[in-house]
């Protein structure tokens, strides 16, 4: 877990901070990664330079009235995060920056041609992660092109927000403010959760934990701060996300089985193409049950590949375990954070085993020992261990033989 530095960034001139950071990079890594770290440092410092206090923007007579209203909502969300969710009470999300672009960074995901194991890159401070981020989309596309030449499937995803894990006071950005109040709430809860607990080198653990906190935060926020219409819309979107994630969960198992079979490369490509075509067909059937909702169409475009499928699992794979753990603590978030911190102190394999045991225990208590495996599957598909899934309804909207995806940022 990373903690805040003793000297806040605003007391250190940005140019000096950049020089110190680059010196550290050269000392630790040599010259090979200097250009990557240089763009990361300069890109982040540009974001920080663009930020100004939200109170200042709201008090400025020249500010757009619509922007003032949105930022007032942000202030309410930010206070709720610390008061109701016990998330860090610091300077993050109390400043605003308009970057003049739709995304703050672009992440590059890569996976081998016949595998769903995402490639990882090891970075200073955060350990190894399953993506590589760039502030300039052209740089991201350039790396993706190089990886494709090396035989990888690739996926370049625009990212509206990221966390510096408390090392900086992360600002509110136009890149996620434009998505609406509910998306702002999801983002703030999710990114502050990274400041609460973060394990270097375990992307799935970190993202699934933050997603579980985000889900709990949205449940509480919607109960007291949203109109019935907004709650209904959010519930419908969550149902679509759950069903889509179940679809992808089932197909991931099929891909892993086929990639693990002893076949020639040409046979593997044919099998891969057949599965991708079947996945698109089942997605089309699922869309009909949503009234032709098309929000995921871009994901299922012609470039659907292993890297796309791998990217989604990083955010959702362990969410059911964290949701079950939260339920075990009767939704007491400070107690939940202490339990998660204890898991974070374990090594990676022990953490994974402990989380799997939590899901199994939740399934057994809910369905009985004889139905433990079935219950675990339903929990995994539901994406919400605190929900009360119905074994029949969990499959009803799913086209055989498959299951789901999510609308991560």
Characteristics:
mainly alpha, 9 strands, 8% strand, 409 residues, three-stranded antiparallel beta sheet
Brief overview, please?
The protein has 409 residues and is mainly alpha-helical. Helices cover 59% and strands 8% of the residues. The chain is built from 16 helices and nine strands.
**Sheet with most strands: strand arrangement:** 1-2-8
Give the ordered list of helices and strands. Answer: HHEHHEEEEEHEEHHHHHHHHHHHE
DSSP helical segment count = 16
User: Which shape, going by the Cα principal axes?
Assistant: globular
| Low-confidence segments | 1-31, 369-409
Radius of gyration: 22 Å
Distance between the termini: 23 Å
Count of strand segments = 9
User: What portion of the residues fall into strands of 2 or more residues?
Assistant: 5-15%
Which class of secondary structure composition applies to the elements?
Answer: mainly alpha
Report the oligomer. Answer: single chain
Helix coverage percent: 55-70%
Main sheet? 3 strands, mixed
Q: What is the mean predicted local confidence, pLDDT?
A: 83
């Amino acid at each position: 877990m990373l903690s805040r530095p003793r000297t806040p960034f605003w007391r250190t001139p940005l140019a000096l901070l950049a020089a110190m950071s680059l010196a550290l990079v050269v000392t630790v890594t040599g010259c090979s990664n200097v250009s990557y770290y240089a763009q990361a440092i300069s890109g982040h410092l540009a974001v920080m330079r663009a930020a100004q206090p939200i109170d200042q923007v709201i008090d400025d007579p020249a500010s757009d009235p619509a922007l003032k209203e949105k930022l007032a909502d942000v202030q309410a969300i930010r206070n709720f995060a610390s008061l109701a969710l016990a998330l860090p009470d610091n300077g993050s999300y109390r400043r605003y920056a308009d970057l003049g672009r739709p995304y703050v960074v672009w992440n590059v995901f890569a996976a081998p041609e016949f595998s769903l194991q995402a490639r990882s890159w090891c970075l200073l401070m955060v350990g190894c992660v399953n993506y590589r981020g760039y502030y300039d989309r052209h740089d991201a596309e350039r790396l993706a092109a190089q990886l494709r030449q090396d035989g990888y499937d690739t996926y370049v995803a625009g990212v509206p927000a990221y966390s510096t894990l408390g090392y900086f006071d992360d600002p509110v950005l136009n890149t996620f403010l434009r998505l609406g109040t509910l998306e702002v709430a999801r983002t703030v809860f999710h990114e502050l959760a990274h400041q609460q607990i973060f394990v270097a080198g375990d992307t799935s653990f970190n993202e699934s934990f933050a997603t579980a906190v985000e889900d709990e935060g949205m449940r509480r926020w919607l109960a007291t701060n949203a109109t019935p219409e907004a709650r209904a819309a959010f519930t419908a979107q969550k149902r679509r996300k759950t069903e889509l994630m179940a679809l992808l969960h089932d197909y991931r198992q099929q891909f892993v089985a086929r990639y693990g079979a002893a076949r020639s490369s040409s046979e593997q490509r044919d099998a891969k193409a057949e599965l991708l075509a079947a996945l698109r067909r089942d997605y089309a059937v699922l869309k009909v049950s949503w009234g032709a909702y098309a929000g995921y169409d871009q994901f299922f475009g012609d470039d659907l590949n292993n890297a796309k499928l791998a990217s989604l699992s990083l955010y959702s794979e362990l969410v059911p375990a964290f949701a079950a753990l939260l339920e075990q603590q009767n939704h007491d978030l400070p107690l939940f954070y202490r339990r998660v911190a204890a898991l974070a102190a374990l090594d990676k394999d022990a953490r994974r085993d402990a989380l799997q045991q939590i899901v199994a225990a939740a399934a057994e208590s809910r369905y009985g020992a004889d139905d433990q495996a079935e219950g675990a599957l339903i929990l995994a598909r539901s994406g919400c261990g605190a929900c009360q899934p119905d074994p029949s309804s969990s499959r009803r909207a799913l086209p055989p033989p498959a299951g789901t995806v999510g609308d991560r940022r």
